[in-house]
Amino acid sequence: MVISAEPLIYGLIFVAVLVLVEGIYLTVFGKSISLNSRVNRRLDMLEKGKGREQVLEQLRKEMGQHMKSQKIPLYSLLAKKAQLANIAFTPVQMMVVMVVLGGIAYVGLTLQTSASTPIRIAVAVAMGIGGVYVWVNGKAKKRLALMEEQLPDAVELMVRSLRVGHPFGAAVNIVAKEVPDPLGTEMGVIADEAAYGRNVGDALKSMAERMDMQDLRFLAVAVTIQQTSGGNLAEILDGLAKVIRSRFKLFRRVKAITAEAKWSGMFLSVFPLGALVMINLLSPDYYDAVKETAYFIPACLVVAAFLVVNIIVMKALVNIKV
């Protein structure tokens, strides 16, 4: 029995598509767009000679451009994730990247596989769109995780600034200068907006809703209440920093406890599909003896229903609300 190498080729082409997306992104925007940079992107742009107003306009445009393009067919699947990841590519550029990657995938499939033209086209389109989606989703998760980790330290830095006599706007500006991306640039935008007259509480609320982070909502509410009713903001934020840090530790603990169950659920959900694909690749005539029977289609539907129920139940079991 000869084992076909085509499944491996499909996987390698998809991995190449993911690598190409990252390569194109870093080639266009440089290392300043990377979350690993010690200097946040806003400061890097200012150091290169761009004016404060110009930098603010560019960053605000990048932050809101994806949700404004939700009505574009297929792009609505990416819009929310692209906004959370703060992808600097415009929606048009993202779609061009999808087309380019789909074309590259099609060429690779044509050269390395013997699949028919309709299948190659369908798989290439799926790889172009799916590769960008997987890349954007990964960027969004990484960015949100880093922001959640940075937030307690940033709030504590605000507390220290307030206790030495700085106003809250200056405390936000200090965070924007001292904290790396992704939170540094976000706080820098808030500091710039406050400098041009926007209420800091409103800016924090807008950021919290855009990032869909509960801890940021807590911060925005605390600042808004202090602005309207007064009080010791340093003490309020000090308590908030402790709460956020405790929540973060609890999230990490829950994630560690449920990690095994999540991987088990993922394996149980993916394995039947993988087994079906491998059976059809290794032995295409495996089901020929039962395909024509009256029970084949109903049995397939029952198996599919059980698989869907398995995915839903396993996801519900590990989705612990904190």
Largest sheet: none
H/E element string?
HHHHHHHHHHHHH
CATH architecture of the domain at 147-241: Up-down Bundle
Mean pLDDT: 86
Show unreliable segments.
none
What does this structure look like?
This protein is mostly helical and 322 residues long. Among the domains are: 147-241, Receptor-associated Protein (Up-down Bundle), CATH 1.20.81; 242-322. It has 13 helices and no strands. The radius of gyration is 25 Å and the shape is globular. The mean pLDDT is 86.
Tags for this entry?
single chain; mainly alpha; Receptor-associated Protein; 78% helix; globular
Topology:
Blueprint: H1 6-29, H2 41-47, H3 52-64, H4 76-85, H5 91-112, H6 117-163, H7 168-178, H8 183-195, H9 200-211, H10 214-229, H11 233-282, H12 288-291, H13 296-318
Quick summary of this structure?
The protein has 13 helices and no strands. 78% of the residues lie in helices and 0% in strands. Among the domains are: 147-241, Receptor-associated Protein (Up-down Bundle), CATH 1.20.81; 242-322.
